[in-house]
Amino acid sequence: MKRKQQRELVELTEQMINNVPQLPNQDQPPINADIALPDLPTLPPVDGASLPPLPMPGMAVPQKEANCLECAAKFTIKDLRLTKVKCPVCDAVVQL
Ligand SMILES: [Zn+2]
């Protein structure tokens, strides 16, 4: 009984030894490959100083000028989407 158990143990151990090392050698890359990858240090440094302070300098003052035909007043419209606006002087509707 004891010899048979030992022989089975030896066979099991031999099977494990023969089977286990084949998996990492075939499917997995060597462990050192991940450590030696030079991709991470090549990232450009984050430099916010080179960026302009405003996203679009041309859009800093979104306004245009309107002339009232009734009283000849000039005033500034800050909402460029408007197509008509009331004159702040005489309340006449000014087409933009
Ligand atoms: Zn007016």
Describe the structure.
The structure is a single chain. With 96 residues, this protein is of the alpha+beta class. Helix content is 30%, strand content 15%. It has two domains: 2-42, no CATH class; 58-95. It has helices at residues 2-19, 22-27, 31-35; strands spanning 64-67, 74-77, 84-86, 93-95. Strand 1 and strand 2 form a beta hairpin. It binds zinc ion. Residues 68, 70-71, 73, 87, 89-90, 92 line the site of zinc ion (ZN).
Please give the share of residues in helix: 25-40%
Instruction: Tell me the structural class.
Output: alpha+beta
Please describe the biggest sheet, giving its number of strands, its sense, and whether it closes into a barrel. Answer: 2 strands, antiparallel
| Total separate domains | 2
Strand order of the largest sheet: 1-2
Shape: rod-shaped
- Series of secondary-structure elements, N-terminal to C-terminal: HHHEEEE
Count of DSSP E strands? Answer: 4
Heterogens? zinc ion
| DSSP helical segment count | 3
Q: What quaternary form is this?
A: single chain
**What amount of the residues lies in strands?**
5-15%
Radius of gyration, in angstroms, nearest whole number: 40 Å
How far apart lie the N and C ends?
A: 105 Å
Roughly what is the average pLDDT, rounded to an integer?
76
Low-confidence stretches: none
Tell me briefly what this model is:
The protein is α+β, with helices and mostly antiparallel strands and 96 residues long.
